[in-house]
Structures are given as structure tokens and as C-alpha cells.
Amino acid sequence: MSTRRHFISHSAVAASSLAFPLVGGAQPKTIKVGVLHPVTGALAYSGQQCRFGAEMAIEDINKAGGIKSLGGAKIEALLGDAQSQPQAGAAEVEKMNEAGVSAIVGAFASAICLATTQAAAKYNLPHVVDVGVADQIVERGLKNTFRFGPGYRKCAEIAVANLHVLNTAAGRPAKTVMIVHEESLFGTGTANLLARELPGYGYEVKEIIKHANPTRDFNNIVLRMKAVNPDIVIPANYYNEYALLVRTMQQQKVTPKAIYSVLGGAASSYKFLKEFPDAANGIIDCNHWFNPKDKRSADLKKRTEAKGLFFSYEVFMAYTATRLLGDAIERAKSTDRAAIIQALESSTFADHIMPYGTTKFVNGQNMGAQPLMTQVLKNDIKVIIPRDYREADPLFPLKA
Fold first, then answer.
1. Do 106 and 196 fall into the same domain?
2. pLDDT tens digits, 295-354
3. Residue 61 lies in domain
4. Are 164 and 70 within one domain?
5. 113 and 10 share one domain
6. Domains held by the chain: number
7. Does 218 lie in the same domain as 196?
8. Which of 54, 176, 228, 239 has a beta carbon 3.0–4.6 Å from 318's, enabling a disulfide?
């Protein structure tokens, strides 16, 4: 069924329930939740991965008896496509609001999340952000917006501090950096934060290069990299561009002392590892990652792979964000939006596979959220920092 017809059918249901209110406090049969991602356009791969993660969480909540405080009511997903465009995401929020959703989970990309959270705020519609890392998302005072994962400021700070630890331990072989980033809010914001942080640790940022989405040819950028010859290359881009950039570096035999990613679109990716094992080898990334010591992580990874998909950060971020929302609805004992917002504000959600500890929201940001540092070693992705989650010792620098 097309998304449009999907919405129309639910709008009719929503309208009829307004005309005939629930009699005597009868329990709703289902709780409508908007699952909104860019499943077409430039970000389609990531959006589809997110959608799968959210749907898997809804399936698990429903299988475990639904929302028990509402008589076992099941969650019903209303699927929306943001088409990799902020304005399309905002338009989907309008439709979801009319269809009577109690909350929204999404919408992957920072620029889209900025638009969808703002659109949802008009209707006091709770919006749980699954990935979007731009800190503006939670810094505009929107009471409806909650981000479970860390923002890019925290990721950049942790990445640079850890780079300094690794470099110092190796005798400080790396002194110069080049940043290559995509043009939208995510890439530009991350690059700006890095450019601000790195000099304080004694690194010289030789060049910052911005590229469009999509970019199909990185030859000129890599030629420039050859000329500048930085010790460290830091990419901040989405999957396709990240993969192409690193492969072009490999083809042109550009081998810096380290490829050190911050929220790298392909770095912590089993898909990238499988498709381009040689190009992926040794890459370090500061990114969203699950707790490798929690058995449930391995179970979720197996389930994802059984569907022929890769267990990417989009899957487990959307999965846990949706579980967080389910927990809030359970505690709200209501499908009322204000009640769900209140339950999210007071959330202590801890039943998850992320390396976070107990959830505590301050102005919509989960203060316990943190990225992990991973490295591609021996054809696998291993956590190298922090020690609590470490699976392997870091290899730095890659090239003496």
C-alpha cells in the first residue's frame, strides 16, 4: 500500500474516533507511532536500516505483550518517507499528526531531524530522535524532542581527546590533519567542532574540504590530499561518499598515518568491511556503537543478519530509541501526547544494549549517552576505547 493511502486510511480512523470518543475509558486497540526515515533519495540505505531497527523493536514490544499498562495494546507503526529532504520530512509529520499518532521516532539525518522535530513541536507531538547528531536539534528549547544518543559536540570532544592519548602513547608521530566533510548540517557542524578542538591539542589543521551529497568522484580531493600530505585524514560524511573517498585514497596509494573518523558514515560498518576489506583495514572511528559485552547485542546482530541485512549503527540506534519510547508509553499509561512527553522527561530507561547506563534527559538530551572508539582489525570491528568495553588493543599509527 502506498504511504499516501496508508495515511488516508488512518486519517479516516482518527476522524471517526474523534466523532465517537472512547466509551467508559475503554482501552485503545492500538497505539499509533510514526516511524519516519529517508527511505528514498541519497540517504535511502541508512533510512531503510533505521526503519528496520524501529520495526524490529515494535515487533519485540508487541510480542512481549504490548503496552501492559494499556491492557496489552499493540503499537502500530505508521511508516513515513522523508525522501532525504528536510521539507519532505516535515510534510510527513503533518500527515502523521492528522492520522493521530501518539509519537514519532526518526528521522536519521540531522537536517531532517531539525525539520521534523520543529514540525512535531507545533502539535506537542513527542519526537524521539534516533540518530541526528547536530546539537541544535536539542538546543532550541523544544519540549517535545528527545535524543537518546550523543550529539556531535560530545563525539568530537571524545574523538580528539582519544586521538591525543593514542598519538602521545605512540611518541606523537602525527602533527597535521586534513578534514573532508559532506556539506549538510552533520558534516559541516562536525568539521567546525574538530577545527576548533584540534589546535588546542597541538595539531595543525592543514585543510578542510567540503563536498556535495552525492559526490561520485573524489579524485581531485585525493590529489589535493597527496599535495598536502597530512598525517591524519578525518572524514565526516555519509556511507556512499565515505566509502568512495577511502577507496579513491587506496587507488591513488594515499596512506596517511591514520584514517581517524568522527561519526564516519562507513567506518564502523560491517557492510563497508565486507565490500571493501582492504580499504577498511585499520580505520579508527568514534561513533555510535553497542555494548559488545551484552549478550543481547550478539542476538540482535544475528537476527538482523538472518534478514540479509548488516547490523549497522542505524539499526541499533533506531531499535533502542523505539524501545525507549515504548518504555515511556508504558509508564505514561496513556496515548496522550503530553503524558508521553512527561514520561520521557522522567525516563530512567536502562534495559538496552548501548554503553550508556541509565537514561537521564536534560533539555531533551540523554546525558549518559556516549560514543565508543572502534577500529577495523583482522577483518572485524573491535572496540578499542574506553577500557570498560575494550575488545582489542588499538593499532596506531597504521603507517610508521
1. no
2. 999 999 999 999 999 999 999 999 999 999 999 999 999 999 999 999 999 999 999 999
3. 3-150+294-366
4. no
5. yes
6. 2
7. yes
8. 54
Q: What is the pLDDT of residues 215-231, one digit of tens each?
A: 999 999 999 999 999 99
Count the alpha carbons within 13 Å of 84 in the hemisphere toward its beta carbon: 13
- Counting every residue, how long is the chain? 400
Could you tell me where the beta strands, DSSP code E, fall in 258-377? 258-262, 284-287, 361-362, 365-366, 372-377
For residue 215, the tally of other CB atoms under 10 A from its CB is 15
pLDDT in tens, 241-298: 999 999 999 999 999 999 999 998 888 899 999 999 999 999 999 999 999 999 999 9
Same domain, 125 and 176: no
Which pLDDT does position 166 carry in this prediction? 97
Residues 49 and 16 in one domain: yes
Residue among 61, 7, 72, 2 nearest 34 (CA): 7
CB 104 within 8 A of CB 128: yes
Cα→Cα distances 185→101, 115, 179, Å: 28, 12, 15
State which amino acid sits at residue 392. A
- Structural domain includes residue 399: no
Give the global pTM: 0.91
